[in-house]
Amino acid sequence: MTDPCVGMSPRRVGGRDRVTGRQAYVADIHLDDVLHAKLVSLDCARARIITVDTSAALAVPGVRLVMTAADLPQPVPRFGPQFQDRPVLAAGETHYHGEPLAAIAAETKDAAEEATRLVRIEYEELPAVFTIAGALDPMAPLVQDPALRPGDRLARSNVLREHHYGWGDVDAASADVVVEGTYAFPMVTQFAIEPHGFIAAPDSDGIAVWSSIQHPNWLQRVIASLLHLPLAKVRIFAPDPGGGFGGKQHAKYEPLVAFMALRAGRPVRLVLTLEETFQAVRRGASEIHVRSGFRSDGGLVFRDIEANYLIGAYADIADRTVAKGSYTSNGPYRVPAVRIVARSILSHTTPSTAFRGFGNPQQIWAVESNMDEAARALGIDPLALRLQNLAHPGEAFIPGDTPADGDWARTVERAAELIGWGSPPAPGRGRGLAVGLKSGPTTGLSNSIVRLLADGSVIVYAGTSDMGQGARTIFAQIAADELGAPLDWVTVVMGDTAVVPYDQQTSASRSSVFMGNSILLACRDIQAKIRAMAARLEPVDEAAVVVERGEVRIGGRVTPIRDVLVRGLGRLGGELIGIGEMRKEAEPEHPLGGTAAFFEFNCTAVEVEVDRETGDVVVARHVTVSDVGKAMNPIQVRGQDEGAAIMGLGHTLMEHIIHDEAGRIRNLGAIDYRIPTSLDLPLRMESDFVENADGPGPYGAKGMSEGALLCVAPAVAAAVHDATGVRIRDLPLSPERVWRALHDAAESPDAGAPEAIDAR
Asked: Where in the sequence is the domain holding 462, given as residue range(s)?
């Protein structure tokens, strides 16, 4: 048998091409006879479009097509993963800064850019809303036409959806101490290094689309529906994305380039600039009020949460992030009475979409900050308070949902051990700790095909997108172990809907569990055929043959699968084909449409130093520990967790989108929008994981890679409070915000105190 792969950290499959630049992303693909597209938009958020004059643009040499809403089927087609509310091009009115109302296709990019400047637009700027308070004002202009929401009782408001969850009787609950506060989370962008790229080309009697998309099969359905084509006539090429973080889950401009390609009769290529990407995707901002009741000994009695998310001009998948993030907002705690109200609020801002953590970081920021305030108010150690209230393994901490699927206390205790909790920090420093919980996928369907070729090499076909999470490596490890092939004899094929079988989506940290199980089952399908082959060759009763982990055992004799395969196929050669499917059906009565396949759980502990003169926060130590079930590739687990942790430091310390009074984004691009660089990394970083083989994935694995981002912000804020005595409830903890809080606290010593109410 070859050396085992699962549980080891072999060299990343495809890693060399990524770091040498040989890997071809969408923007690296150049088709013959391609036209280059550019978008036309207005320099304001909301405006009534009066006229669009494209005559000068059409006169530019090399321009072959100028498309406006008038050139599309009428009414203008709309699309969206939850609500079909987003038009292919703005029709009649623009709803956010950067929304395209026309597009140019030309022989060269320069010609297209010149033509965009020559489109003459007469428009009337209209009143708009950019904040939660502004959108909820009864006199606020409506973001969406109520006609788009027939039968919706909220259609004449800017509330897209309102969600109610909970159990027990919050109003009747009696607490010794009540702690409450409102916590704000900023609007941030995914900032994937690879730009969003889209290409479409007529393909015989159908269409082919290239996209840096996370969900190729979902995109296939969208394009087929808009163009009234059968799925078989829509081919999606999805090269491995260069980072996605949720921002590339769903269709953005693929429908537009598809319509343009069919109209021009030629391929059309659109690659967004970084500035345009800021105007295309972001995370939902939020304001969340948390009111928690405790007994004097620290036991939680009730929790009352009201969450408002600012989701932007169109729904995209944002309301699902609100629903899923708020459903688990009580966290991993046992609480007798919980009430949760969450709203998706429309605004004249960039439509928000999925972002690593999927609505949970906003809630965790609020609830874990509230827990830290409660610990201070109760005079109980913040670590002890969490351990006291943490759900035990197998405990149904959310009634009617998946019980606690890990020994989460072990994760918390390990993080506390690594940070040195209980020992005094260095002078001028403070420590903080927080936990994060996220529900995994609630439904899912992943199909795979595995081919074991005549020489023992393997080809795996999977519809998953590898956007840096290492799915190719994990899938190859499973196939190598199960079929006894060296890892470098395994090829993983992805990214073409005409070649690979259906995968519902690449999100919710599902790939190792759903597609991993599917591939495992496909390999077991091949093992069954090897078993029958071995029984025929020997000959023995098939029940006497055992096939597992690359070996065939008959009595005391062990033979590699490859040897049996070569003998069994004989001179004709050939191959064995296995088919696998992992399915989790919907549960219509469940608030989310299904229970959690697993939970991602993380504990983050940090030690910070705060410069009182400037407000600058330096993370001296950062510890992240995740409950992973089984680390199928330990170095990838650590890499994913450390990457998530650094991403979490972005929205914690610096990242936020800034709008002016007209709704224009003022910090477009890498210069004015700060993300963490090497100069902002923790001085010392440690990552670890807990393995109990208690997950539903292969060999007991759970999904991971979002967990280490979930609770970075409350851990850092708690450490800042520990170091300075200042409590900050608005993110990011920028130097200016921290400095102002320190200044205000010096003038008013009670300014940062928690709102603790003696309820007795």
From this structure: 15-22+444-584
Taking only Cα atoms into account, the Rg of the chain, rounded to an integer number of angstroms, comes to 27
CATH number for 88: 3.90.1170.50
Annotated catalytic residue 706: yes
| Cβ partners under 8 Å of residue 32, min gap 6 | 267
Query: What's the CA gap between 441 and 447, in Å, rounded?
Result: 16
For residues 341 and 323, give the distance between their C-alpha atoms in angstroms, rounded to a whole number: 10
DSSP collapsed to 3 states, 391-420 = CCCCCCCCCCCCCCCCCHHHHHHHHHHHHC
CB 662 within 8 A of CB 125: yes
- Section 281-301 average pLDDT: 98
How many C-beta atoms surround the C-beta of residue 141 within 10 A? 14
Considering 584, 617, 646, which residue would you say is the last residue of a domain?
Answer: 584
Q: What is the pLDDT of residue 534?
A: 97
| Residue among 373, 551, 691, 706 flagged as catalytic | 706
Euclidean distance between CA atoms 364 and 345, whole angstroms: 19
**pLDDT tens-digit profile of 194-234?**
999 999 999 999 999 999 999 999 999 999 999 999 999 99
Residue 387 in any domain: the answer is: yes
Residue whose C-alpha is closest to residue 165's, from 352, 367, 324: 324
501: how many CB neighbours lie within 10 A of its CB?
18
Domain count of the fold of the chain: 3
636 and 660 part of one domain: yes
- Secondary structure (DSSP) of 332-394: SB--SEEEEEEEEEE-SSPPP---TTTTHHHHHHHHHHHHHHHHHHHT--HHHHHHHHBPPTT
Q: CA angle at residue 191 from 348 to 707, to 5 degrees?
A: 100
Q: Compute the C-alpha angle 15/17/23, nearest 5°.
A: 120
Cis check for the bond before 403: say yes or no (omega within 30 of 0).
Answer: no
pLDDT, residue 758, reads 35
CB 225 within 8 A of CB 41: no
What are the C-alpha distances in Å from 607 to residues 417, 604, 711, 732? 13, 10, 14, 17
Quote the tokens at residue 759.
Answer: 């309820």
What's the confidence (pLDDT) of residue 3? Answer: 79
Assign 755 a pLDDT band (cuts: 50, 70, 90): very low
- The token pair at 422 is 């209980």
* Average pLDDT in the chain: 96
Asked if 415 and 539 touch (Cβ cutoff 8 Å), the reply is no
Among 266, 192, 193, 202, CA closest to 235: 202
DSSP track, 587-606: -TTSTTSS--S-EEEEEEEE
- Considering the domain architecture, whether residues 274 and 321 belong to the same structural domain is answered as no
Residues 263 and 223 both lie in one domain: yes
Partners of 338 in the β-ladder: 167, 303
Which CATH number fits the domain that encloses residue 552?
A: 3.30.365.10
Q: Which helix (H) or strand (E) holds 639?
A: helix 634-653
From 273, 428, 286, 410, select the one nearest 345 (Cα to Cα).
286
Q: Quick check: 321 and 358 in contact, CB under 8 A?
A: yes
Handedness of CA 38, 43, 47, 49 (dihedral sign): negative
**Extended strands (E) in 96-190:** 102-106, 120-125, 159-167, 177-185
- pLDDT tens digits along 235-261: 999 999 999 999 999 999 999 999 999
Query: At which of 561, 584, 607 does a domain end?
Result: 584
